[in-house]
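1st attempt posting a full record on here, be nice pls
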Amino acid sequence: DIIDEIKQKVQNLDLQLKRFKRHKKLTEKLREQDIALALLKVQRYRTTIDPLEKQIKEYWHLRESKTTESSIHEKELKQYRETYSLQEKELNELQTQMTLLVDRQQILRQDILVWTEKGRSALANIDRQEQEYVSNDEKIDLLQSRSEDLEQELAEIELEINGKIDYYKTEKDSFQTLESVYLKTVEDLDSIQNDRWQCQQGIASQRSLYDRTISMVEEKQSLCEKLNERILEQKQNEKIHRGRQKQIDVQSKTIDQKLASSKNNLDRIESKLQILQTEEQELVKQYHHLSAKKDSLESQNSFYQELVESKEGFPEGTRYVLENPKKFPNVLGTVADVFLVDDLYRDALETGLGDLSHCMITKDKKSALSTLENAFLEQAGDLAIIPLKEAIDLKKRLNPVPKNGTVFGRASDLVKTDKKLRPLADYLLGDLLVVENLQDAINDPDLNGWGLVDTAGSYSGSDLVLKNRQVSEHGNLIGRQEKLDTIAFELNGQRKKEKEMAKKQESLDRSIQDTRKDLKVHLKSVGELTHSLTEMKTNSIRNQLEQSQVLETIKNLEEELIEVEQVVMQSKESLRSLKPVIDEVKKELNIYQEKIHKANKCMVDARKDRDNRQQFMQDARIALLNLESNRDKLKFKMTSGEETRNELKMRQTVILQEISGLQDEKTDLDEQVKIGEKELSKLTAETQKQKSIIDLKRSVFSDTYQMIDEVQSKITAEQQDRELLLENLKNAELSVSEIEQRMKLVIERIRDRYNIDLPSNLLVDGSENDLKFDIIRIRKSLDNIGPVNMAVQDEYDNESERLEHLQKQSNDLTTAEENLRETIRKIDRVARKRFKETFDLIRGNFEKLFKLFFDGGVADLRLIGDPDPLEADIVIQAQPPGKRNTSLRLLSSGEKALTAISLLFSIYQVKPSPYCILDEVDAPLDDINIHKFTKVLKKFADETQFIIVTHNKLTMEIANQMYGVTQQKKGISQLVSVKFD
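the predicted structure (as tokens):
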């Protein structure tokens, strides 16, 4: 910009040397020509006023003579209108009477037609009823014959059923006798087996008791000897612990006093440090927040800067024209540059405009054609142009916006642009409405005929075309430069805040370091005293515990010894009484075994006889059931035939009654037809008479109307003449006034501009048009000359030298800037590509793993917000099977945890490592979800070694090797490992 400015300045200085000499000469000539032109205008105005004043006097005379002629025709018109009203009223009454006659005639014709059709229908019904009567007689005879045959067949089946019933009863009595014999043998066998089982249980119980008693006696005798030895040993230990406790109490009291003093000093320093650290944490948090926001703004600034400079998103031809403004100087920009819109409606407006947002804007149609021609010669590619001058003249009638809760407004009203471009916005977007949701708006009848687009970019045109906007990797075209300016302003503010926080952080760090030094010294002192006191207390507690344990042990051992000695004496007495009882029970068991063998044989024989008799009884029962079924079928057929026969007889009676009624109805209808035809002929004659009278009246009425029209035409012609006269008078008076005003303006202009009165005796050569042309030419020459500079030579030399120096520097900077921008663009492209590839892999893995964890369902990851993927927000969508949630907040804690684990493993799958540490990730999961979690772990364990920190037993079950962490001493952890083969 500086170089172009200096170039222009050098050229201006060169021109000023030539312009100065011409300036004075042209100014003097302009003054002479301007005065001469003013004099000619004043003379021309005076010659024009004289004939106009004569015309005004003539118009006033004609106006007075025309007024009296119009009153005569108005009186004549009033008389004709009164006659016309009376004739119109009489004609309307006749037409009403005529209408009533025609309606009555039409009703009679319809009635005659209906009566005739009803008579024909009655004759057809009589024929149909007679045919049905004959058919029913035949059906009754046939049903009577079938009923007699069925009665004979039923009697034969009844005899056979009675014989089968007697045979079945005989077989059933025999079966019940054998069944009672069989049940008696089963009861006898069960009774004997129960007695034997009780005897066996008694032997086993007595033998077990005897063996256990012998073993217990031997064990208790050995235990008595060991108890006596342990009692002597514990009494010796109790004396040692009593002396040690006295020494520990004296040492603990001394250390406790020193520790209390040190802790008071330590609490004071810790309180001060905590306050400073809280301030530091809050400051660091603010600093990180600012830094993250600044990095985000810098990335956005770079992204939008690249989009604006590279013209990404525009067609190839449009980009070529915009990147070469010197070759296409008449291009003012694109539609996307001149239309601004809020972020909420940006996607909607871009979808609504479509490819029109790529259109370039030129000054007028001529420059547009020139640009197209140059683009064709340069082989620039596809492009579209809108001429600004013609676009401003566009006028489009806009329909009112429907009052609807889902409509944000007309798209053209939501666009921010220059007033001159408002007609272009109305022309492109005037028939488009921005709505909240396209699906709801399409079904709204109030919005039919409108183009609709919602804030998400879904579009439905009035021509039934549907579109859906996909977010472009180049971002929005509309409002790019506005977005870039906003980001740059925010970025400068963030950098200032970051510097202020850095200074505050440095001061706070120095205070914290000094406080920590004091704290470290006091902590060391308190730690040493605490450690000594803890050791004393630990030793005291341990000694007291051991002493109490020794006393308790002695007491327990003595009580246990007494109990054991009593048990030994009782056990020996029991052994002596058990031996004869066992021998007696064995003899009784052998007797029961022989009884069971005999009873079992009797039961088998009785069961065989019972089963054979049961089979005979079942065969007889089946034969009896078959005969009874056949009997029931015959009875049903007989009953159905009788009911049908009775129904047919009743129908015969009804048919005879219907035939009689139809014959009477036919006679009545014939009589009505004759009466109706007579009345119709009378109405026809009366109608013809009334029609003749109406035609005569209508002819007279038409003549009256024609006379009224002639009088009105005369009055209208006179009014037009009078109005024309007034218009001419008014125009003449206005012309005189306007010419006089022009004369005054010319005289005043000369007085104001040159400070002289207009001369009356000046001789002027040339016409008024010649003088106007000379003045315009002189003024244009003066405008072209511009201001004059007297020291132009020195300025020209200095600026030329400066221009040469700046051009060299500009070339170097342009080359460096292009290299740097290309490097940044490459880095951004690679980063976006790698991020998109990684995101797509994680997204696919997340969908699969979510279904694996939940046995179904739907899950997805999406980028929203900023069109730049590096700045966009990531949204997690998870819908377990059977749920219809719209947010992760609606999931249970277990489902949230399982969703998080799915995402964790999805990221892990993209670049797996040889081992993975999971720290209590299964804590919120229930047993069912734990099984799902362990199932997935087993699947991945083939490629990765998992180290899991857990308290859940179900998770521990799948481990190949387990390490338990214990604390045998306070503050000291130990590992206990178990390997499962």
